[in-house]
Design goal:
Order of helices and strands: EHEEHEHEEHEHEEEHEEHEHEHEHE
Bound molecules: adenosine monophosphate, magnesium ion
Radius of gyration: 20 Å
Shape: globular
Largest sheet: 11 strands, mixed
Structural class: alpha/beta
Oligomer: single chain
Length: 356
Amino acid sequence: MAARVLQVDPVAPAPAVIAEAAAVLRAGGLVAFPTETVYGLGGNAIDDAAVARIFAAKGRDPSDPVIVHLADRRDLGDLVRELPAPAQLLAARFWPGPLTLVLPRAERVPPRVSAGLPTVAVRVPSHPVARALIAAAGVPVAAPSANLFGRTSPTTAAHVLADLGDRIDVVLDGGPTPAGVESTVVAFEGEEVVVLRPGATPVEELSRCLAEAGFRPPRLVERGPQAGSPGLLARHYAPRVPLVLLRGPERERLQWLRAALAARPDRRIGLLLSDEELRALSPLAPEHRARPLGPRSHPEVAARRLFAAMRELEAEGVELIYATDPDPAGLGLAVADRLRRAAEEVVEVGRTQEGS
Ligand code: AMP
Ligand code: MG
């Protein structure tokens, strides 16, 4: 069965279209919709069968919990048992927006949502379509990214259809998503805030907000198979072709790339690089396919383009993708995280004698 695609204005969604999609959610169906991060695959979070359908459609492992989306911060009381002081502060400051809070789960939330954990991840999205849909449905909406498990997150309705077109009921097509990377996920250990996943809310902004209220800056967890949060696999968000991630000083990265490209002028190689890097490497051989990720000083451009660029390079039939590590400031931290997890190989170039 093919999904119904409903076009929707991303700024002022038509109430009739939203009502149609909301009715599908209330009836236990699955609706993909744009958020300010990426497209989500929504189901009624308090309907266990609907949640099971989300996992089945994505092929998502039952040990990987999903995020519950609310229309309003005031609806939080029904879903969580307590709200630590820093969580209250962050919710007031960053919601609606791309910040997910992991909090003690209330009885009402089916354990399946949380992969059986005593906590539940919650956020209030800011995208007008997401807000209107959740409000019209009148239920909390569980929504992981609307991609097949292990694939890159969808930033357009076409990406959703490519992965899930025959597995879900409705896709609300509201155009490309503004941020392009998933939400920042934080948990709480006493008064300490722990960043489980860097994302569309910069960690610097969390730090500033917490500092103003006298809380310590958030701690970043290193991720890997043993990470403190389930589902945060070391390799994930991967394109279907091998991606090689270069880390190290700019000059050495460019030298390495120049040599690698010169050695294979007739191989179809994809390049996910900053505007500056692509300029420095041009002209490229005709078989080399570039996807500019914007100026290095503006990682939010890279965030917006990253996942679509990976899918486009795949579609162009590249056999290999080279990417470079962005500076980890602002959204650069989230982009660096996604690239690392997409990478089959990380190459360190130009290491200094001290091994930095
Ligand atoms: P997404 O695929 O964007 O919905 O990402 C959901 C991610 O949020 C999961 O893979 C986890 O890493 C994280 N998450 C969700 N719920 C929890 C939870 N209860 N505890 C810790 N991390 C969570
Ligand atoms: Mg996902």
